[in-house]
Amino acid sequence: MLLRPNISIRRFAKADLTRFAEWVRPQLPSTALNLAVITDSHDRTAFSRTYYGPNGYWHVQEQHWLAGELPVSWRIHLGDLVDGSEPTFMTMWRLRNIAADYKADDLPFVIAKGNHDDNDKYAEKNRRFAGSFHPWVFNETIFAPMRQQVGGPTVTRHGVAYFDAASVRVVVINTSDVPVRWIGGRRNYDLKKTLAVTADQIQELIDILQDAGARDVLIMAHAPAMVRSGKPGLRYNGRPLHEVLRAFNEKLAGRVECGSHPDFGGTARFDFTATGGKIIAYLAGHWHTEEDYRVNGIHYSLLNCSALMGRLHGLTTNYNRKWNRLINTPSEYAGYIVSVDPAKRMLREFGYGAASPLRQFRY
């Protein structure tokens, strides 16, 4: 029996999410794997009626409440938990609050690292790029509690998390896998501007896929490996990552070359000839929009940001401008129940708030 804490959420949100749960519940088969998913909450202490603010944390709590109303097996956050635009101690406090909410009951969770989660947006404002987190902050605040969960995911050295549910394996990739060094008091990379996976992480992913057996695999990450145009969505190794997924679908054996860069280069070897499943889809956030497209047969599905993006704010995406998102209304937030139905080989994404009510795809 799962332990559920009492969760206080805003009255309008409770009414809206109750209606959503009543609509979704009959559509979730008992054999389906159901995941409560949000991404890009961009939580911060500074309040704004038109843009990011402390409502990022409220959206996490509201996801928590919704997960208790539906037959959900996992809670997932796909990164950019915090905006990373405030002094270090304030961002760290916000990050720890979010982590505490995920740890508050027995429902297992997975959290991906986003490109804002090391506070580099704040560091960019400073001449010496001061204020970035050391790797221990995210590792101890997020990755360590993920590893310690009873019945939780396996988490690799490079931050890949994965778990199995009957005939489905879920793999959450770390698209902020950036080696960190301090040079003259300044960090070698601006994580906010450096989406990447290392060759070592690609080898970890290959090992996870090779061990999947006959399972189909749902890939999730903060950022997509490829964008609609067929160009890489990551600064380093987006294409090799995508090619590994293609090779898994085609049951190939061989190697993938990641170049000669001292931090991201190398060679990874794969043999998928003994596997029987396929890639269901690659779900990601980061771009603050909804979009579905295929690149070489791999289905990429982008999920909208939970963070408030008001229509008149200069950085608001066109997708969110069309929603005319307003604080203290259901359009303020966005989230999903992602349901994988192996019996019908169907992926369904039920959205609430500033999200499409239903997107569904056969795999």
Automatic annotation (TrEMBL):
Give the matching Gene3D superfamilies: 3.60.21.10
Name-wise, this protein is: Metallophosphoesterase family protein
Top EC category:
hydrolase
| UniProtKB keywords | Hydrolase
Q: Where is the Calcineurin-like phosphoesterase domain?
A: 34-289
The cross-references to InterPro entries, in alphabetical order and at most eight, read:
Calcineurin-like_PHP (IPR004843), Metallo-depent_PP-like (IPR029052)
Which GO terms label this protein's molecular function in UniProt?
Answer: hydrolase activity
Query: Quick check: keyword Hydrolase in the entry?
Result: yes
- For this protein, the parts annotated as crossing the membrane are none
The EC number on file is 3.1.-.-
Query: What Pfam families does this protein map onto?
Result: Metallophos
